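agent> step 3/5: call structure_predict on target 'Glycoside hydrolase family 79 protein' (Pterulicium gracile).
agent> reason: downstream docking stage needs a structural representation; sequence fetched in step 2, passing through unchanged.
tool.input:
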Amino acid sequence: MSPLLRTLAYLLLPPLALAANLAELKLRGPSGLPASASHELHPALSSFSIETAFLITYLGNVSAPNRLTLDLLDNLHERTGVPAEIRIGGITADSTYWNGSQTQAAFNFIDDKGVLHNTTIGPAFFKAMSLLPKRTKITMNLNLDDLDYEGALEVARATWTGLGPDRVVAFELGNEPDHYSRPVQTPKSYANIWKTWSRNITQALKLPKPLFQIAATAEDPLWPYDAPGAQDQLGCVSALAAGANEFGTANYCSEHTYQYSVCDPPRQAIATLPNLVNHTRLAMFLDLWQPRIRSVRAQLGPHSYLNGEYSSVSCSGRNNVSNTFGQALWLLDTTLYSASLNISRLYIHQGGPLALQSSTQLNRGGLSFYNLWYPIDNLNGNVTVFPSYSAYLFLTEAIGKSKTLKLANIYPGRQANLSSITTEMGDTSAGQLVAYGFWDTALKQKGPTKLALINMEIYNKTQADAGVKRPRTVFDISAYLPQNAAVGSGREIPPPVVTVKRLQAPGADIKDGGLTTWAGQSFLMGKGKGELVTETFQGGRIPVRASEAVLVFL
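tool.output (status=ok):
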């Protein structure tokens, strides 16, 4: 969808002020695994894309590691037992080169106007990755835009030598080739180059097959899917149809999603906090990818479709939108809704504003407003952890160490006729209340083991300061409570007790990670600070305030 068409579509949606805020919402069963449930969730569902030029900024190096970054990654690893994956890439991957004699891990050439032109990496670049949690899987994005095969091969060889088969999960050729200026962006021309390079690099380095991730495209799918030109748009499906995987080198397919943008003035106008923190808009946006997800999974396997780079607002986010607790709620809902569509992993992007991304972009210099934390002081702020990071704590704790967990969107649910590719715009809810269930198929328990309940109605700290009472909704989850074996015995049995952890802040507009808590703890310094807080409820009625989310353990 073009920026203008998407702008018009969003403006036609009901205003947020009209969203329903029910005093009580009764979730309806049955409690068994729904037919619409996802595939088994990948433990690294919540992963990261880090701009190549900024990787060392995030990690530090062996002699001076960035302890904040490493602690934050360790927190996630502890909860799932599997590290978040790292995709090293983005727009700077297409201007990254190898120098085997360079002592610096990475050298960024920046001119006197502050414009970053290219990045040169050396052996210390890969040594720095030893700082990551053990067994962290890496996707390496290679330079395609220069059409310099030997240069891409050099970086691939250095990656394979420096990391090896236990760490490299995929290579990616180019970043967002549908935005290239030269004629690479047609499905046929892209497929011809991609299949040749992926085969030749595989043979030259004796790589196992398949080990390449295809597409990495940026544009939203044209809609409807059967509209003229829609299936000729460069993306996963059109590249595969054009023969990109002729030599069997593709193991994954990746496409990027940025729901809003500040790359140009028309899109800047709608990149607002109320538009971002809106489940209906979010679901409409992600539903555009449903036909592609199904097609790729049918061709490459059930876990083959990835969101290889995403965030709330492209061109590095928007101050007072992307760095707020509102983005934390958006990130939580986006990840869970995407997983319900069978997107296997999502890589939230970390980086900084870059020259020539857009001549009219809002941001210049520093680190991006959508980053989950700032590992160093920069033009946009000091070292800090933003509220969005705590959403990843919620998500990793929801998955836990299970390898057999499935997810379903149980409220409002997708209303789409999933057998039809022409009626995919599924979630028609005008409300801001969302519920997801997690079923562990390895257990005998019929019902879900956890529920995620999200109240996305916006409540800002400015409202609290003005004396406006914070609304709340009670979620009645009694239909999903575990069945008590003693029912029918003639004895009065008390309702089961459930445990709850909360993701909360004083309001959606909060930017201070120190005021954002997950289960009572803040993570402003990397490790949890404060007493761990859990609540218990009997009878299945769970209160959730506006701009708050809870994880229920059943």
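agent> step 4/5: record observation. The chain has two domains: 42-399, 405-553.
agent> proceeding.
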